[in-house]
Amino acid sequence: MSDELRALQQRLAAFAAARDWDQFHSPKNLAMALSVEAAELVEEFQWLTEEQSRRLDAERRERVRLELADVFIYLLRLADTLDVDLMCAADDKIALNERKYPAERVRGDSRKYDEY
Amino acid sequence: MSDELRALQQRLAAFAAARDWDQFHSPKNLAMALSVEAAELVEEFQWLTEEQSRRLDAERRERVRLELADVFIYLLRLADTLDVDLMCAADDKIALNERKYPAERVRGDSRKYDEY
Amino acid sequence: MSDELRALQQRLAAFAAARDWDQFHSPKNLAMALSVEAAELVEEFQWLTEEQSRRLDAERRERVRLELADVFIYLLRLADTLDVDLMCAADDKIALNERKYPAERVRGDSRKYDEY
Amino acid sequence: MSDELRALQQRLAAFAAARDWDQFHSPKNLAMALSVEAAELVEEFQWLTEEQSRRLDAERRERVRLELADVFIYLLRLADTLDVDLMCAADDKIALNERKYPAERVRGDSRKYDEY
Q1: Contact A103 B39 (CB under 8 A)
Q2: φ and ψ at residue A46, rounded to 5 degrees
Q3: What is the mean predicted confidence (pLDDT) over B64-76?
Protein backbone atom coordinates (compact mmCIF):
# COMPACT_ATOMS: atom_id res chain seq x y z
CA MET A 1 0.00 0.00 0.00
CA SER A 2 1.25 3.48 -0.72
CA ASP A 3 2.29 5.48 2.34
CA GLU A 4 -0.24 8.13 1.45
CA LEU A 5 -3.19 5.71 1.35
CA ARG A 6 -1.97 4.07 4.55
CA ALA A 7 -1.85 7.46 6.27
CA LEU A 8 -5.37 8.24 5.10
CA GLN A 9 -6.61 4.90 6.42
CA GLN A 10 -5.05 5.68 9.78
CA ARG A 11 -6.82 9.04 9.93
CA LEU A 12 -10.13 7.33 9.13
CA ALA A 13 -9.52 4.64 11.75
CA ALA A 14 -8.79 7.33 14.34
CA PHE A 15 -11.92 9.24 13.29
CA ALA A 16 -14.05 6.13 13.87
CA ALA A 17 -12.31 5.20 17.13
CA ALA A 18 -12.78 8.69 18.58
CA ARG A 19 -16.52 8.31 17.99
CA ASP A 20 -16.69 4.72 19.24
CA TRP A 21 -17.96 3.69 15.81
CA ASP A 22 -15.93 0.49 15.44
CA GLN A 23 -18.93 -1.40 16.78
CA PHE A 24 -20.86 -0.31 13.64
CA HIS A 25 -18.00 -0.81 11.18
CA SER A 26 -18.28 -4.52 10.48
CA PRO A 27 -17.29 -5.38 6.90
CA LYS A 28 -20.94 -6.18 6.21
CA ASN A 29 -22.09 -2.73 7.30
CA LEU A 30 -19.22 -0.93 5.58
CA ALA A 31 -20.05 -2.72 2.31
CA MET A 32 -23.63 -1.49 2.66
CA ALA A 33 -22.46 2.07 3.36
CA LEU A 34 -20.13 1.95 0.36
CA SER A 35 -22.96 0.89 -1.93
CA VAL A 36 -25.19 3.65 -0.57
CA GLU A 37 -22.52 6.25 -1.35
CA ALA A 38 -22.11 4.77 -4.84
CA ALA A 39 -25.87 5.21 -5.33
CA GLU A 40 -25.69 8.85 -4.24
CA LEU A 41 -23.16 9.29 -7.02
CA VAL A 42 -25.49 7.58 -9.49
CA GLU A 43 -28.30 9.86 -8.37
CA GLU A 44 -26.33 12.89 -9.62
CA PHE A 45 -26.23 11.37 -13.11
CA GLN A 46 -29.53 9.54 -13.44
CA TRP A 47 -31.47 12.15 -15.41
CA LEU A 48 -28.51 13.57 -17.34
CA THR A 49 -27.62 12.47 -20.84
CA GLU A 50 -24.17 10.94 -21.23
CA GLU A 51 -23.16 14.13 -22.99
CA GLN A 52 -24.34 16.28 -20.08
CA SER A 53 -22.46 14.02 -17.68
CA ARG A 54 -19.24 14.90 -19.49
CA ARG A 55 -19.63 18.63 -18.83
CA LEU A 56 -21.09 19.18 -15.37
CA ASP A 57 -21.85 22.64 -14.09
CA ALA A 58 -19.73 23.83 -11.16
CA GLU A 59 -22.35 23.13 -8.51
CA ARG A 60 -23.02 19.56 -9.54
CA ARG A 61 -19.34 18.89 -10.11
CA GLU A 62 -18.63 19.86 -6.52
CA ARG A 63 -21.39 17.57 -5.21
CA VAL A 64 -20.01 14.75 -7.35
CA ARG A 65 -16.50 15.43 -6.06
CA LEU A 66 -17.66 14.97 -2.47
CA GLU A 67 -19.63 11.83 -3.34
CA LEU A 68 -16.48 10.40 -4.90
CA ALA A 69 -14.73 11.20 -1.62
CA ASP A 70 -17.42 9.32 0.34
CA VAL A 71 -16.98 6.23 -1.81
CA PHE A 72 -13.21 6.48 -1.43
CA ILE A 73 -13.46 6.85 2.36
CA TYR A 74 -15.66 3.77 2.83
CA LEU A 75 -13.53 1.80 0.38
CA LEU A 76 -10.41 2.60 2.40
CA ARG A 77 -12.18 1.78 5.68
CA LEU A 78 -13.44 -1.54 4.39
CA ALA A 79 -10.06 -2.49 2.91
CA ASP A 80 -8.45 -1.57 6.24
CA THR A 81 -10.92 -3.68 8.23
CA LEU A 82 -10.19 -6.68 6.00
CA ASP A 83 -6.46 -5.94 5.84
CA VAL A 84 -6.54 -5.72 2.04
CA ASP A 85 -3.86 -3.75 0.18
CA LEU A 86 -5.84 -1.86 -2.46
CA MET A 87 -2.89 -1.06 -4.72
CA CYS A 88 -1.89 -4.68 -4.75
CA ALA A 89 -5.48 -5.85 -5.35
CA ALA A 90 -5.81 -3.40 -8.27
CA ASP A 91 -2.58 -4.71 -9.80
CA ASP A 92 -3.86 -8.28 -9.56
CA LYS A 93 -7.25 -7.35 -11.02
CA ILE A 94 -5.74 -5.46 -13.94
CA ALA A 95 -3.60 -8.50 -14.74
CA LEU A 96 -6.76 -10.66 -14.73
CA ASN A 97 -8.59 -8.16 -16.93
CA GLU A 98 -5.75 -8.14 -19.43
CA ARG A 99 -6.24 -11.88 -19.86
CA LYS A 100 -10.05 -11.69 -19.98
CA TYR A 101 -10.15 -8.74 -22.38
CA PRO A 102 -7.25 -8.96 -24.86
CA ALA A 103 -7.12 -5.60 -26.66
CA GLU A 104 -7.12 -7.02 -30.18
CA ARG A 105 -10.19 -9.13 -29.45
CA VAL A 106 -12.52 -6.73 -27.66
CA ARG A 107 -11.75 -3.44 -29.39
CA GLY A 108 -14.83 -1.20 -29.43
CA ASP A 109 -16.95 -3.91 -27.87
CA SER A 110 -18.55 -3.50 -24.45
CA ARG A 111 -19.75 -7.05 -23.88
CA LYS A 112 -18.74 -8.97 -20.76
CA TYR A 113 -15.99 -11.55 -21.24
CA ASP A 114 -18.47 -14.40 -20.86
CA GLU A 115 -20.65 -13.06 -23.67
CA TYR A 116 -18.01 -13.57 -26.35
CA MET B 1 -3.00 13.32 -6.14
CA SER B 2 -0.33 10.91 -5.03
CA ASP B 3 2.09 9.82 -7.75
CA GLU B 4 1.10 6.24 -7.20
CA LEU B 5 -2.62 6.85 -7.73
CA ARG B 6 -1.84 9.03 -10.73
CA ALA B 7 0.27 6.24 -12.24
CA LEU B 8 -2.56 3.75 -11.69
CA GLN B 9 -5.04 6.09 -13.36
CA GLN B 10 -2.74 6.36 -16.35
CA ARG B 11 -2.54 2.57 -16.66
CA LEU B 12 -6.33 2.37 -16.54
CA ALA B 13 -6.70 5.13 -19.13
CA ALA B 14 -4.27 3.28 -21.41
CA PHE B 15 -6.16 0.02 -20.86
CA ALA B 16 -9.42 1.67 -21.95
CA ALA B 17 -7.82 3.51 -24.89
CA ALA B 18 -6.22 0.31 -26.22
CA ARG B 19 -9.71 -1.25 -26.34
CA ASP B 20 -11.42 1.84 -27.76
CA TRP B 21 -13.61 1.93 -24.68
CA ASP B 22 -13.55 5.70 -24.10
CA GLN B 23 -16.80 5.91 -26.04
CA PHE B 24 -18.45 3.86 -23.25
CA HIS B 25 -16.71 5.59 -20.35
CA SER B 26 -18.92 8.64 -19.89
CA PRO B 27 -19.15 9.71 -16.23
CA LYS B 28 -22.77 8.55 -16.24
CA ASN B 29 -21.82 5.05 -17.35
CA LEU B 30 -18.80 4.83 -15.07
CA ALA B 31 -20.97 5.81 -12.08
CA MET B 32 -23.33 2.97 -13.00
CA ALA B 33 -20.45 0.52 -13.32
CA LEU B 34 -19.05 1.63 -9.96
CA SER B 35 -22.39 1.03 -8.26
CA VAL B 36 -22.67 -2.41 -9.87
CA GLU B 37 -19.25 -3.36 -8.49
CA ALA B 38 -20.26 -2.04 -5.06
CA ALA B 39 -23.31 -4.32 -5.23
CA GLU B 40 -21.15 -7.33 -6.09
CA LEU B 41 -19.28 -6.58 -2.89
CA VAL B 42 -22.55 -6.38 -0.95
CA GLU B 43 -23.60 -9.71 -2.44
CA GLU B 44 -20.64 -11.39 -0.73
CA PHE B 45 -21.93 -10.20 2.65
CA GLN B 46 -25.70 -10.29 2.30
CA TRP B 47 -26.40 -13.61 4.03
CA LEU B 48 -23.52 -13.44 6.52
CA THR B 49 -23.93 -12.21 10.07
CA GLU B 50 -21.84 -9.18 10.97
CA GLU B 51 -19.71 -11.52 13.05
CA GLN B 52 -19.10 -13.83 10.08
CA SER B 53 -18.21 -10.83 7.94
CA ARG B 54 -15.37 -10.07 10.35
CA ARG B 55 -13.72 -13.48 9.81
CA LEU B 56 -14.07 -14.51 6.17
CA ASP B 57 -12.76 -17.83 4.96
CA ALA B 58 -9.85 -17.65 2.49
CA GLU B 59 -11.95 -18.23 -0.60
CA ARG B 60 -14.49 -15.52 0.11
CA ARG B 61 -11.79 -13.14 1.30
CA GLU B 62 -10.08 -13.45 -2.07
CA ARG B 63 -13.33 -12.78 -3.95
CA VAL B 64 -13.95 -9.75 -1.73
CA ARG B 65 -10.39 -8.52 -2.35
CA LEU B 66 -10.97 -8.55 -6.11
CA GLU B 67 -14.36 -6.85 -5.75
CA LEU B 68 -12.68 -4.10 -3.74
CA ALA B 69 -10.22 -3.78 -6.61
CA ASP B 70 -13.08 -3.40 -9.10
CA VAL B 71 -14.64 -0.60 -7.06
CA PHE B 72 -11.25 1.08 -6.75
CA ILE B 73 -10.60 0.80 -10.50
CA TYR B 74 -13.91 2.40 -11.51
CA LEU B 75 -13.53 5.05 -8.81
CA LEU B 76 -10.12 6.01 -10.21
CA ARG B 77 -11.44 6.01 -13.78
CA LEU B 78 -14.41 8.18 -12.89
CA ALA B 79 -12.27 10.62 -10.89
CA ASP B 80 -9.86 10.78 -13.83
CA THR B 81 -12.65 11.48 -16.32
CA LEU B 82 -13.92 14.32 -14.14
CA ASP B 83 -10.42 15.54 -13.29
CA VAL B 84 -11.06 15.13 -9.56
CA ASP B 85 -8.13 14.67 -7.17
CA LEU B 86 -9.34 11.91 -4.83
CA MET B 87 -6.82 12.58 -2.04
CA CYS B 88 -7.80 16.22 -2.00
CA ALA B 89 -11.52 15.42 -2.12
CA ALA B 90 -11.10 12.98 0.81
CA ASP B 91 -9.29 15.66 2.84
CA ASP B 92 -12.11 18.12 2.20
CA LYS B 93 -14.77 15.56 3.07
CA ILE B 94 -13.07 14.53 6.30
CA ALA B 95 -12.91 18.19 7.34
CA LEU B 96 -16.66 18.48 6.66
CA ASN B 97 -17.36 15.30 8.63
CA GLU B 98 -15.38 16.59 11.58
CA ARG B 99 -17.73 19.55 11.74
CA LYS B 100 -20.88 17.49 11.18
CA TYR B 101 -19.93 14.77 13.66
CA PRO B 102 -18.01 16.27 16.61
CA ALA B 103 -16.55 13.34 18.55
CA GLU B 104 -17.88 14.40 21.96
CA ARG B 105 -21.41 14.73 20.59
CA VAL B 106 -21.87 11.57 18.53
CA ARG B 107 -19.87 9.04 20.54
CA GLY B 108 -21.40 5.58 20.13
CA ASP B 109 -24.28 6.94 18.08
CA SER B 110 -24.83 5.95 14.46
CA ARG B 111 -27.50 8.46 13.51
CA LYS B 112 -27.07 10.77 10.54
CA TYR B 113 -26.10 14.33 11.39
CA ASP B 114 -29.57 15.60 10.44
CA GLU B 115 -31.25 13.22 12.87
CA TYR B 116 -29.73 14.83 15.98
CA MET C 1 -53.06 -5.31 -0.67
CA SER C 2 -54.44 -6.91 -3.79
CA ASP C 3 -55.33 -10.58 -3.44
CA GLU C 4 -52.94 -11.42 -6.23
CA LEU C 5 -49.95 -9.77 -4.56
CA ARG C 6 -50.91 -11.33 -1.25
CA ALA C 7 -51.03 -14.76 -2.87
CA LEU C 8 -47.60 -14.21 -4.40
CA GLN C 9 -46.20 -13.18 -1.03
CA GLN C 10 -47.58 -16.35 0.51
CA ARG C 11 -45.91 -18.48 -2.16
CA LEU C 12 -42.60 -16.71 -1.50
CA ALA C 13 -42.98 -17.14 2.26
CA ALA C 14 -43.63 -20.85 1.75
CA PHE C 15 -40.62 -21.11 -0.57
CA ALA C 16 -38.38 -19.61 2.12
CA ALA C 17 -39.90 -21.65 4.93
CA ALA C 18 -39.45 -24.93 3.03
CA ARG C 19 -35.73 -24.13 2.76
CA ASP C 20 -35.39 -22.91 6.35
CA TRP C 21 -34.28 -19.54 5.00
CA ASP C 22 -36.23 -17.33 7.42
CA GLN C 23 -33.11 -17.16 9.56
CA PHE C 24 -31.41 -15.30 6.67
CA HIS C 25 -34.39 -13.14 5.73
CA SER C 26 -34.05 -10.30 8.22
CA PRO C 27 -35.22 -6.96 6.77
CA LYS C 28 -31.60 -5.82 6.78
CA ASN C 29 -30.48 -8.77 4.64
CA LEU C 30 -33.50 -8.58 2.33
CA ALA C 31 -32.82 -4.89 1.71
CA MET C 32 -29.26 -5.82 0.73
CA ALA C 33 -30.48 -8.58 -1.58
CA LEU C 34 -32.98 -6.21 -3.18
CA SER C 35 -30.26 -3.67 -3.91
CA VAL C 36 -28.04 -6.37 -5.38
CA GLU C 37 -30.82 -7.41 -7.75
CA ALA C 38 -31.40 -3.76 -8.70
CA ALA C 39 -27.69 -3.54 -9.56
CA GLU C 40 -27.91 -6.64 -11.76
CA LEU C 41 -30.60 -4.78 -13.66
CA VAL C 42 -28.38 -1.71 -13.95
CA GLU C 43 -25.57 -3.92 -15.24
CA GLU C 44 -27.68 -4.83 -18.26
CA PHE C 45 -27.95 -1.15 -19.19
CA GLN C 46 -24.62 0.33 -18.15
CA TRP C 47 -22.88 0.34 -21.53
CA LEU C 48 -25.99 0.92 -23.64
CA THR C 49 -27.05 4.33 -24.86
CA GLU C 50 -30.46 5.46 -23.69
CA GLU C 51 -31.67 4.89 -27.21
CA GLN C 52 -30.39 1.31 -27.21
CA SER C 53 -32.07 0.74 -23.85
CA ARG C 54 -35.41 1.54 -25.47
CA ARG C 55 -35.08 -1.26 -28.05
CA LEU C 56 -33.44 -4.28 -26.44
CA ASP C 57 -32.72 -7.40 -28.46
CA ALA C 58 -34.68 -10.50 -27.47
CA GLU C 59 -31.90 -12.09 -25.46
CA ARG C 60 -31.18 -9.07 -23.31
CA ARG C 61 -34.87 -8.31 -22.91
CA GLU C 62 -35.40 -11.78 -21.45
CA ARG C 63 -32.50 -11.32 -19.00
CA VAL C 64 -33.92 -7.94 -17.99
CA ARG C 65 -37.38 -9.48 -17.54
CA LEU C 66 -35.99 -12.02 -15.06
CA GLU C 67 -33.99 -9.34 -13.22
CA LEU C 68 -37.19 -7.32 -12.85
CA ALA C 69 -38.75 -10.45 -11.38
CA ASP C 70 -35.90 -10.77 -8.86
CA VAL C 71 -36.37 -7.19 -7.70
CA PHE C 72 -40.12 -7.76 -7.45
CA ILE C 73 -39.66 -10.97 -5.45
CA TYR C 74 -37.36 -9.39 -2.86
CA LEU C 75 -39.57 -6.32 -2.66
CA LEU C 76 -42.58 -8.49 -1.88
CA ARG C 77 -40.61 -10.54 0.66
CA LEU C 78 -39.33 -7.43 2.42
CA ALA C 79 -42.75 -5.79 2.47
CA ASP C 80 -44.20 -9.03 3.87
CA THR C 81 -41.56 -9.23 6.61
CA LEU C 82 -42.33 -5.66 7.66
CA ASP C 83 -46.07 -6.09 7.20
CA VAL C 84 -46.23 -3.22 4.70
CA ASP C 85 -49.06 -3.03 2.17
CA LEU C 86 -47.30 -2.05 -1.06
CA MET C 87 -50.40 -0.84 -2.90
CA CYS C 88 -51.29 1.39 0.01
CA ALA C 89 -47.72 2.67 0.35
CA ALA C 90 -47.62 3.47 -3.39
CA ASP C 91 -50.90 5.41 -3.11
CA ASP C 92 -49.51 7.43 -0.21
CA LYS C 93 -46.24 8.11 -2.02
CA ILE C 94 -47.98 9.21 -5.22
CA ALA C 95 -50.06 11.66 -3.19
CA LEU C 96 -46.86 13.05 -1.66
CA ASN C 97 -45.22 13.31 -5.08
CA GLU C 98 -48.21 15.19 -6.45
CA ARG C 99 -47.63 17.83 -3.79
CA LYS C 100 -43.84 17.91 -4.24
CA TYR C 101 -43.96 17.98 -8.03
CA PRO C 102 -47.01 20.00 -9.21
CA ALA C 103 -47.34 19.37 -12.95
CA GLU C 104 -47.50 23.00 -13.98
CA ARG C 105 -44.34 23.82 -12.06
CA VAL C 106 -41.97 20.99 -12.97
CA ARG C 107 -42.94 20.34 -16.58
CA GLY C 108 -39.93 19.10 -18.55
CA ASP C 109 -37.64 19.58 -15.56
CA SER C 110 -35.84 16.68 -13.90
CA ARG C 111 -34.52 18.43 -10.81
CA LYS C 112 -35.26 17.12 -7.34
CA TYR C 113 -37.98 18.99 -5.46
CA ASP C 114 -35.40 20.53 -3.11
CA GLU C 115 -33.42 21.98 -6.02
CA TYR C 116 -36.22 24.32 -7.12
CA MET D 1 -50.78 -8.52 -15.13
CA SER D 2 -53.30 -8.00 -12.39
CA ASP D 3 -55.84 -5.26 -13.07
CA GLU D 4 -54.72 -3.47 -9.96
CA LEU D 5 -51.06 -3.33 -10.99
CA ARG D 6 -52.08 -2.30 -14.49
CA ALA D 7 -54.18 0.54 -13.09
CA LEU D 8 -51.27 1.70 -10.95
CA GLN D 9 -48.96 1.66 -13.96
CA GLN D 10 -51.44 3.78 -15.87
CA ARG D 11 -51.56 6.34 -13.05
CA LEU D 12 -47.75 6.49 -13.02
CA ALA D 13 -47.61 6.86 -16.81
CA ALA D 14 -50.11 9.71 -16.61
CA PHE D 15 -48.10 11.31 -13.79
CA ALA D 16 -44.97 11.26 -15.96
CA ALA D 17 -46.77 12.42 -19.10
CA ALA D 18 -48.37 15.39 -17.30
CA ARG D 19 -44.86 16.52 -16.34
CA ASP D 20 -43.32 15.83 -19.73
CA TRP D 21 -40.95 13.38 -18.04
CA ASP D 22 -41.08 10.64 -20.67
CA GLN D 23 -37.96 12.14 -22.21
CA PHE D 24 -36.10 11.23 -18.98
CA HIS D 25 -37.73 7.83 -18.50
CA SER D 26 -35.58 5.66 -20.73
CA PRO D 27 -35.16 2.13 -19.37
CA LYS D 28 -31.51 2.95 -18.68
CA ASN D 29 -32.43 5.95 -16.52
CA LEU D 30 -35.30 4.18 -14.78
CA ALA D 31 -32.99 1.29 -13.86
CA MET D 32 -30.61 3.83 -12.32
CA ALA D 33 -33.43 5.50 -10.40
CA LEU D 34 -34.67 2.12 -9.15
CA SER D 35 -31.21 1.24 -7.84
CA VAL D 36 -30.94 4.62 -6.12
CA GLU D 37 -34.24 4.02 -4.33
CA ALA D 38 -33.08 0.53 -3.33
CA ALA D 39 -29.97 2.14 -1.81
CA GLU D 40 -32.09 4.61 0.16
CA LEU D 41 -33.79 1.57 1.64
CA VAL D 42 -30.42 0.01 2.46
CA GLU D 43 -29.36 3.26 4.12
CA GLU D 44 -32.16 2.84 6.67
CA PHE D 45 -30.72 -0.51 7.71
CA GLN D 46 -26.97 -0.08 7.35
CA TRP D 47 -26.08 0.61 10.99
CA LEU D 48 -28.81 -1.54 12.54
CA THR D 49 -28.22 -5.08 13.71
CA GLU D 50 -30.34 -7.71 12.01
CA GLU D 51 -32.28 -7.98 15.24
CA GLN D 52 -32.99 -4.24 15.28
CA SER D 53 -34.09 -4.41 11.66
CA ARG D 54 -36.82 -6.86 12.71
CA ARG D 55 -38.39 -4.41 15.15
CA LEU D 56 -38.22 -0.89 13.71
CA ASP D 57 -39.50 2.07 15.67
CA ALA D 58 -42.55 3.83 14.21
CA GLU D 59 -40.63 6.69 12.65
CA ARG D 60 -38.13 4.54 10.80
CA ARG D 61 -40.81 2.07 9.80
CA GLU D 62 -42.73 4.87 8.10
CA ARG D 63 -39.60 6.03 6.23
CA VAL D 64 -38.95 2.44 5.14
CA ARG D 65 -42.56 2.07 4.01
CA LEU D 66 -42.20 5.08 1.71
CA GLU D 67 -38.86 3.86 0.38
CA LEU D 68 -40.49 0.53 -0.46
CA ALA D 69 -43.13 2.53 -2.33
CA ASP D 70 -40.42 4.34 -4.31
CA VAL D 71 -38.83 1.07 -5.37
CA PHE D 72 -42.24 -0.31 -6.31
CA ILE D 73 -43.09 2.80 -8.34
CA TYR D 74 -39.90 2.71 -10.41
CA LEU D 75 -40.20 -1.05 -10.84
CA LEU D 76 -43.71 -0.63 -12.26
CA ARG D 77 -42.59 2.26 -14.51
CA LEU D 78 -39.64 0.28 -15.85
CA ALA D 79 -41.73 -2.84 -16.43
CA ASP D 80 -44.32 -0.71 -18.22
CA THR D 81 -41.69 0.93 -20.45
CA LEU D 82 -40.38 -2.50 -21.44
CA ASP D 83 -43.85 -4.02 -21.68
CA VAL D 84 -43.00 -6.71 -19.11
CA ASP D 85 -45.75 -8.39 -17.13
CA LEU D 86 -44.35 -8.52 -13.59
CA MET D 87 -46.70 -11.21 -12.27
CA CYS D 88 -45.83 -13.44 -15.18
CA ALA D 89 -42.10 -12.74 -14.81
CA ALA D 90 -42.28 -13.57 -11.09
CA ASP D 91 -44.05 -16.87 -11.87
CA ASP D 92 -41.35 -17.79 -14.36
CA LYS D 93 -38.57 -16.83 -11.97
CA ILE D 94 -40.04 -18.81 -9.07
CA ALA D 95 -40.23 -21.87 -11.33
CA LEU D 96 -36.54 -21.40 -12.20
CA ASN D 97 -35.64 -20.98 -8.52
CA GLU D 98 -37.48 -24.15 -7.63
CA ARG D 99 -35.19 -26.02 -10.01
CA LYS D 100 -32.02 -24.23 -8.89
CA TYR D 101 -32.77 -24.56 -5.18
CA PRO D 102 -34.54 -27.87 -4.46
CA ALA D 103 -35.80 -27.66 -0.87
CA GLU D 104 -34.31 -30.95 0.28
CA ARG D 105 -30.88 -29.98 -1.02
CA VAL D 106 -30.44 -26.41 0.18
CA ARG D 107 -32.24 -26.48 3.53
CA GLY D 108 -30.66 -24.00 5.95
CA ASP D 109 -27.93 -23.14 3.45
CA SER D 110 -27.57 -19.66 1.98
CA ARG D 111 -25.01 -20.37 -0.73
CA LYS D 112 -25.69 -19.44 -4.34
CA TYR D 113 -26.70 -22.32 -6.59
CA ASP D 114 -23.33 -22.23 -8.36
CA GLU D 115 -21.46 -22.64 -5.07
CA TYR D 116 -22.83 -26.15 -4.41
Answers
A1: no
A2: -60, -35
A3: 98
